Amino acid sequence: MAQIFRRRWNSIAPASIFGAALLACGSGWLLHAVYWSPWITRQMTPLEQPVPFSHKHHVYGLGIDCRFCHTTVEKSAFAGMPSTETCMTCHSQIWKDAPMLAPVRESLAENKPLRWNRVHDTPDFVFFNHSIHINHGIGCETCHGRLDQMPLTWQSHTLYMKWCLECHRAPEKYIRPRAEVFNLNWTATNQLELGKKLVADYHVHTEQLADCSMCHR
Amino acid sequence: MKIDAPSKIWRSLDGLAGTKEFQESRHREFPPGASELNHFDRRNFLKLMGAYLALASLPACTRQPIEKIVPYVKQPEELIPGKPQFFATAMTLGGFAAGLLVESHEGHPTKIEGNPDHPASLGATNVFHQAALLDLYDPDRSQAVLKNNQPDAWESFVSALNDVLQSQQSKNGNGLRILTETVSSPTLHFQIQQLLKKFPNAKWHQFDPVNRDHVFEGAKLAFSEIIETQFHFEKAKIILSLESDFLYSHPNSVRYARDFAGRRRARFPQTEMSRLYVVESSPSVTGSNADNRLPIQSSEIENFARALAEKIGAIPNSKIPSQNLQYENLTSALAEELLQNRGESIVLVGENQPPQVHALAHLLNNFLGNVGKTITFTESAVSNPTNQTESLRDLVEDLNRNEVEALIILGGNPVFNSPADFQFAENLPRAKFKAHLSPDVNETSVVCDWHIPQNHFLESWSDARSFDGTTSIIQPLILPLYAGKSAHEILDAMISPPGRGDYDIVRDFWNSKNPGANFENGWRKALHDGLIADTKLPGKKVLLRAVQFQSSKPNSENLEITFRPDTTIYDGRFANNGWLQELPKPVTKLVWDNAALISPALAKKDDLSNGDVVEIEFQNRKIKTPVWITPGQAENSIGLQFGCGRKNVGNVGNKVGFNVFELRTSHALFFTQSVALKKTGAKHPLVTTQTQHTIDSEDRQILREGTFDEFQKNSDFVQTGSEAPEKSNTLFNPQEFKYDGYCWGMAIDLSACIGCNACTIACQAENNIPVVGKTEVARGRVMHWIRVDSYFRGPPHNPEMIHQPVPCMQCENAPCEVVCPVGATLHDKEGLNLQVYNRCIGTRYCSNNCPYKVRRFNFFEYADYKTPSLRPMWNPNVTVRWRGVMEKCTYCIQRISAARINSEEQNRKIRDGEIKTACQQVCPANAIAFGDIGNPNSRVSKLKSHKLNFLMLGELNTRPRTSYLAKLRNPNPKLA
Questions:
Q1: Which of B309, B612, B734, B792 could form a cystine bridge with B314, CB 3.0-4.6 A?
Q2: pLDDT tens digits for range B464-508
Q3: A135–B contact, CB cutoff 8 A
Q4: What pLDDT was estimated at residue B62?
Q5: Would an 8 Å CB–CB cutoff place A211 in contact with chain B?
Q6: Is A76 in contact with B83 (Cβ distance < 8 A)?
Q7: Which of B810, B813, B816, B815 minimizes the C-alpha distance to B833?
Q8: B764-810: per-residue pLDDT in tens?
Q9: Residue B678 CB: number of other CB atoms within 10 A?
Q10: Who's near B951: CB < 8 A, 6+ residues apart?
Q11: Is B897 in Cβ contact with A127 (below 8 Å)?
Q12: B860: which DSSP letter?
């Protein structure tokens, strides 16, 4: 009987199979690359803000502690964003006519809050609690990076669940003494040894940390 | 048709009869039509989904949008964003207050709880207190002052009002009338007195369709003065309720439920139990908890009471006709019991019974020596107790004679809910100037010249008294959302224009009563505590008169209709509240409708089935209403509920239900005979959740129950009757899994549960549970995470009822966890069965496998998170679920998390009782216990070790963490 496929198909068939496989791998690689790229994760990408606030100047230059502005980080899930009044405690006297600070002055005058773009944002199905992390010895720098060296604010890490799990599965790799939580400069000489001791001292229940209910409800 | 033995439990009359439809419905898990999308069948749906899937991948390539983070301009000092604050306030219903603690997140109230220090609450609330939160954020609320239904300003109203008052001043207020609802507020009462001083000829009328007229008239008959009776159920061994729904509808029902349950719940040791007799026409929550119940017509109850009084010997020469054999046994047994337990019994009468019956109860209580022991008398907490029906009649007569020149109506909806023979809607336009203060533009507002939006209690300053007199300051949790005003502000504008704000009015009043340096401290303490100390009404000594009873008429066995406020819509004011419309009504479990309740015997006689629309005629007034066959309804009595069927209400409640007020006249406010019933041939589909999510069958034991006597003889009857598998077969095998953390568990006491549904609506408020509407409920898609299943046992004309709240069982060997293809439901170390919404893809296999049917699926986008006014209402600690995800009870994991974080920060363990799940916290009877079962001293551990403890469907080896304590009833053995 006559052949269904012409001779030409002898090369098209294997080529298309290999081509499809290559396409699948290629698109898989592409998706992966895009997913981990700063375009999606927004790592190292400063966002446009109403006022180009410099943590480097305020924290490194002036030595202001994190908690002066982020007041509720030790007490609540939400770290706290400084109110306009907080900014104006200094800027009603220093740089009080600077054009860069005009939005702040307007905000106080018109009683309209400043609308910042959120740099560290997890999806809505994640319930993150700052105070328990501070209490259990996780430094600001561990998740937010060297803010004291950032002239503009950007996200240092991906904030993906995989990244959170690195610590949640082995907190001894990242834990630090409570007294050093707000010290952005601190590094451990013997992290693992110190970490294991602190995990026990601070009653960190490692076996529970990877439960879904810790972050998702 | 085979009728199963009466010893079996059943849920519906079809089930009891074993009809073919029932057998079919048992085999289908879902009701007919559940798998179709509005006549769009599965094949077409899949075709469309295939096309959608191909295109869906394109828009999926987006990144998370940038969100704004918006701080304050001036941050309030004591507010920690992320941590809720609690403020004490109170809510009035029918004029009486209940103390509340309201949770507020960042300045907006998100959950209402009871105030544990308030005697009327003890930490619990009823369904209305819970639902009131939704009323605050209701998008259909009135937002502006209206003049002739056009928006206008408050200042224009004040100036128009003052013009009218100036012309009234010369006549001393001859044509001025104020109509309010029941007033217990000391400030409001004072203001009204001031107004009446300024206008001596003006009149003040009070009217509420649910009022205490008969109670007051009965007290006047018995004591020549208006007296309220305070009941002490914790001291009563025998309770006889003559149609009094004291567990649900009494102003102090939340407290009474706690006291009543105290003598019935599982205890160590359990040596005695109270006994409740209920005589009523229509099954009520109280009736469903009775040990012995008699369904008779409401009009017959008076004869019953007199027969009983004669048997006891309290009435020597009664003029009642020959004994009614129907209840001869009951009156004899009751008389014997009451006489044996002098000083330890309570006889109480419902607000719908005529004054003579109330007087008779006073006589009986006096004779039985209950006064001063189980019963104390006080004045009424109502500021000016009057007969409200007569008060309204006066007003209507004045209106009719055109004597009313200015009528200010503060609250209420008299056009809708006044007695039909008053013809209020026709008479109201005769007043020359009429203004109505109300939260929505309702039937009365559209007839008035001016409508002023009324502030919700969560937005206003006021005060009120609870049933025992305890006075609370009502403080707002949020500034008025719209241009609302309160009754205080209107009155102040009338007394001393332009009028102060309500904060000043209330504060100045209390300052005038407590002048001096200590006022500020006292004021702050009252606001902090939620009540003013030492304001409870003192006991009063009263003298029983020799009451002359009229000769009673023999019962004619004619058809009777009875009127009661709807159990979830009340007198109509909650018609636009989706939570209450969808809350299954106790006993019938109807939603989104009201029906005429008829007995199975009457249904058989007149060949009526569920949903048949009948026309009921009384004195030339007719209404049409569907019928619902209700087990336990008295044979020749039709139970009607008023409050539904409104036409001038927001989107939720418009035209829902059937208006019964059109039939209710002032000479027959609660029951009447001489009615005609006619079938119309039309049908109206009624939806009930009673037959949904059924898990009963002949071979599975869902409930354990028995009588108190059985328990005394054999305290192991629950343990030996059950079939739990070997204890080694568990997820938490101590040989495999070493764990010393918390183990959460729950125990629900069926003897304490009264079936009020407060847990259902509290869970809805706490967990952002959406309302789905009547059509979806008909398909079995109601979203309540905890439901109260009610079972019947016994003959259909008078069955016993058992209520069983069913939350997620949090099974250790959860059948739902093993079948989830994506791992969206799994176990955590503390024993909770978790539902991770972001992982769920909606296969619904978990719900399929759950034997308890506690899982709820979002078939559509039920949650309304777009309407701006509803957004502040959502609890920020709980995800608002989107379409396509499964959800279920989580043991309030947000509360567990918060407590765990708190305790770890304070370096201590979580204390027993520190975490209260939403359902546990609001239960008036304190039937739910939650805590750490790893701690042998916790309340829940102790209850689980009680001999009455059992697991629902334990033989399936699901090992649920939620267990039940068997229901014990205490029927009189002589009446078996």
A1: B309
A2: 999 999 999 999 999 999 999 999 999 999 999 889 999 999 999
A3: yes
A4: 72
A5: yes
A6: yes
A7: B810
A8: 999 999 999 999 999 999 999 999 999 999 999 999 999 999 999 99
A9: 12
A10: B722, B724, B959, B960, B963, B964
A11: yes
A12: S
Confidence of residue B5 (pLDDT cuts 50, 70, 90): very low
Cβ-Cβ contacts under 8 Å for B684 (sequence gap 6 or more) = B593, B611, B613, B626
What is the number of other CB atoms lying within 10 angstroms of the CB of residue B296? Answer: 23
Chain B nearest CA to A216, separation (Å): 6
CB-based contact B71 A135, cutoff 8 Å = no
Q: Which residues contact B890 (CB under 8 A, 6 or more apart)?
A: A217, B767, B808, B832, B834, B835
Residue B2 pLDDT > 70: no
Q: Tell me, what's the pLDDT at B4?
A: 34
Tokens of B134: 């939704």
Tens-digit pLDDT profile for residues B617-665:
999 999 999 999 999 999 999 999 999 999 989 999 999 999 999 999 9
Give the best residue of A129, A136, A159, A212 to mutate against chain B (max B CB count within 10 A): A212
Q: Are strands B949-950 and B676-683 parallel, antiparallel or unpaired?
A: unpaired
Q: Does B67 touch chain A (CB under 8 A)?
A: yes
pLDDT in tens, B712-751: 999 888 888 766 666 555 666 666 667 778 999 999 999 9
- B905 close contact with A: CB closer than 8 A: yes
CA–CA gap between residue A75 and residue B523 (Å, rounded): 30
The position carrying tokens 């059924």 is B694
Percent of chain A with pLDDT over 90: 91
Rounded Cα–Cα distance for residues B285 and B290 (Å)? 9
Percentage of residues in chain B having pLDDT higher than 90: 81
Instruction: Tell me whether B71 touches chain A (CB under 8 Å).
Output: yes
SS (H, E, C) A189-205: CCHHHHHHHHHHHCCCC
Inform me whether the pLDDT recorded for A112 exceeds 50. Answer: yes
Question: Average pLDDT for residues B663-669, to the nearest whole number?
Answer: 94
Q: Which of A113, A121, A208 sits opposite B70 (nearest CB)?
A: A113
Tell which A residues from 181 to 200 touch B, by Cβ distance under 8 Å. none
| pLDDT one-digit tens code per residue, B388-438 | 999 999 999 999 999 999 999 999 999 999 999 999 999 999 999 999 999
Q: What is the ipTM of this complex?
A: 0.93
Please tell me whether residue B333 adopts helix, strand or coil conformation: helix
Give CA separation, A104 vs A45, A99, B173, in Å.
Answer: 23, 10, 57
Question: Averaged over B686-699, what is the pLDDT?
Answer: 81
User: Looking at residue B945, what is its pLDDT?
Assistant: 94
CB < 8 Å to B834, chain A: 211-213, 216
Strands B68-69 and B800-806: unpaired
d(CA B820, CA B815): 10
Which residue in B962, B958, B870 sits closest to B133, CA to CA?
Answer: B870
Contacts with A175 (C-beta within 8 Å, 6 or more apart), sequence order: A136, A137, A138, A194, A195, A198, A199, A202, A204
8 Å CB contact between B804 and B789: yes
Distance from C-alpha of B934 to C-alpha of B875, rounded to nearest angstrom = 30
Cβ–Cβ pairs < 8 A, chains A and B: 121
Cβ–Cβ below 8 Å for A211 and B81: no
User: Does B808 lie at the interface with A, CB-CB under 8 angstroms?
Assistant: no
Amino acid B697: pLDDT: 63
d(CA B782, CA B771): 8
Say whether A76 sits in a helix, a strand or coil: coil
The answer to whether B134 touches B578, Cβ cutoff 8 Å, is: yes
Q: What is the pLDDT of residue B96?
A: 97
Evaluate if residue B848 carries a pLDDT over 60.
yes
Query: Is any Cβ of chain B less than 8 angstroms from the Cβ of A169?
Result: no
Residue A100 CB-density burial (10 A; 0-12 exposed, 13-18 middle, 19+ buried): exposed
